[in-house]
Amino acid sequence: MNEKKRVIGYIRSQKEEIVWLLKKLVQQPSTRGREEKAQAIVVEKCRQLGLEIDLWDLDENPQLKKHEGFHCDREEFAGNPNLVAVKRGSGKGKSLILNGHIDVVPEGSRSDWDDHPYSGKEMDGKIYGRGTTDMKGGNVALLLAMEAIFVNDIRLQGDLIFQSVIEEESGGAGTLAAVLKEYKADGAIIPEPTSMKLFPYQQGSLWFRLYIRGKSAHGGTRYEGVNAIELAHPVMEHLKGLENERNKTLKNETLYQGVEIPVPINIGVCKSGNWPSSVPDLAVLEGRFGVSPYETVEEAMKQMEDSIQDLNSKHSWFSEKPVELEWFGARWLPSKMDASHPLLSLLKQNYREVMKEEPVVEASPWGTDGGILSAFGDTPVLVFGPGITEKAHDSNEYIVIDDILDAAEIIALTIMDWCGIERPCNEKGVV
Amino acid sequence: MNEKKRVIGYIRSQKEEIVWLLKKLVQQPSTRGREEKAQAIVVEKCRQLGLEIDLWDLDENPQLKKHEGFHCDREEFAGNPNLVAVKRGSGKGKSLILNGHIDVVPEGSRSDWDDHPYSGKEMDGKIYGRGTTDMKGGNVALLLAMEAIFVNDIRLQGDLIFQSVIEEESGGAGTLAAVLKEYKADGAIIPEPTSMKLFPYQQGSLWFRLYIRGKSAHGGTRYEGVNAIELAHPVMEHLKGLENERNKTLKNETLYQGVEIPVPINIGVCKSGNWPSSVPDLAVLEGRFGVSPYETVEEAMKQMEDSIQDLNSKHSWFSEKPVELEWFGARWLPSKMDASHPLLSLLKQNYREVMKEEPVVEASPWGTDGGILSAFGDTPVLVFGPGITEKAHDSNEYIVIDDILDAAEIIALTIMDWCGIERPCNEKGVV
Fold this sequence. Notes:
Chain A is of the alpha+beta class and 431 residues long.
């Protein structure tokens, strides 16, 4: 197929351009509440591609906050819009959502970065900075795949719906808002950092908060108090036990072969005390509870709740001062795409064609907006992208430039196969 | 001595008045930076007692911040003045400083308080609230002791120097400022919460900060990171080993008999992470390092520094990512008053007279401004007060009203003995 060669040729010619675009995107730190400037760059690119632009603030729809899938503690959305940009097909093909998030997680401790966290520095075929891998590099691959098709005057049969959403890192309110605007499709690709693996299954996750109570005292008589920071240790050990139990059988599942902990329990935040000379009477832990694609969110919550109750009943101190569990903020639903789904087959096939090797198919170690797209948008989701799984949320985050190009090729070919190509009448007669 | 009976009688008659005064003081939460309103009540009382008022903001003396005893991270002192109020004696007696601090530590977790932390609630002969024990109750005892002397027209021979200072809880800049104004004396009493014990020795203390570095990762692949909150545990265990070593021999000292940990190491603050779904790469611990009266601050610091270095050299992770130690903010010098000091003998004697029992003499489990008064003001210090040692910095802090009265009596009698009483000429002939 001649079109495919032209598309691949174009993608290969755009290396400098996409490096330039990704640098610009990374240099606009789009942490929560600051997505505007990076989003503006994406909007401009979509206009150049001739897409229909739908740009809106999440507060515009009062139904959003009432939706069962809305788990979000953000108060202000104004000025940091969500974007959906559509290329209508001729109407006879299958539609496809290409979904990426524009928000990035905070950069963490600056001293752990060798360069400025938003440098966009290019070195040894990589680009560095928060968001390169998770997932501005993936977004650039989507834009490049679309551009390669359009500049080659290839007309698709199915609709192509590109989404650049906010709030993915905080529970998916951006994608949910798009679903509520009826952006649904026959399939979706999300280029989250899979290290070029295919993730038809995605882990869900919930955020939790634990209140651990000690007993305050003056630090000079610290033995009269009970230090809440110290108490955090047995709580964390207990959670490791729960994590171990939850993952025992999961490790045998095909898609979790070789994964150390399929659905981890992570403690991400600890806050305790406000005076060096006092024994702190409260420690607050915040964390992420992985939800397996083989269970519902409700089942996962119940297991955690029972486990904390168990800790409280057995531990001498906590039986008096029970640890309190609270679910809060973000929530990502797990998601499953059938092993026989044609989008998965097509992507596998194009992967083989471009990479000349067999793709690795696994379950994702994190939740994505795929949970919302599939649960509320009836859209089957496949996660596949050029970012490096272990560099997501890490210091010195980077992406390999060639992986962006490879992903763009695989995705472009899959778009053409999935949506179908509209040929002029005179061409149809030719074989 | 007739005067002593009159003084005691007056103090006994003032129970309602001092309850009222203490409630007013407690209901003005004088945490750091908010000392003004509570201080205003003390100033007003001193005016009524006819004392010479010296009220000043700590920024007034540019030398203060350059002094070797200044360890303070406060930027703004304006509007929250320090108070020294003096009653000049006839000049022939020994001078005495009565020193109390007006600042209180924060109330901690509100849910641990049965009532509002600044309620000043009276129940079962006690008054509740942050600052009752540490040390507004002690301050009230001082004011009452002075009042009982003055209303009975007893003229002292030595100067009486009452101090209501800020910043004691943060390292003593208030008392240091008074020392730099040349407020020194032949002796000092500080009514910190000793549970009516006599503390001629006081523990010093230093604030430290520890930076514990892990390795960040996405929470869904937490096994790729190293959680800094988890790493805090071995660090805290290591510090317990150091604490144990430092206290082994101290426990045999006379003044530390029966004290569980004479000079504890307390972890008061833990801050780590800012995203539930990330593995945090930094945990910051803040704490208080007790300094024994038998060592210098420098010796204590050296021991801690060596110990952290030892941890870093032996621990597999910390040898790569060393724990970093920083001394910051507050610093309280240890202090010692000779066992044979006449102020100690007098206070013991008056304790026996009022309490009809032998006083308990110990070393304080915390630093006080006594360290500054003795080191930089050449003033021997005895700490004795009505507050309850174990309720200092605790929730549901309270003080027993009768203890305030008892302390006021013991202090009033000691003032009269120490400063001496000036008698009219005609009285001198009588005996």
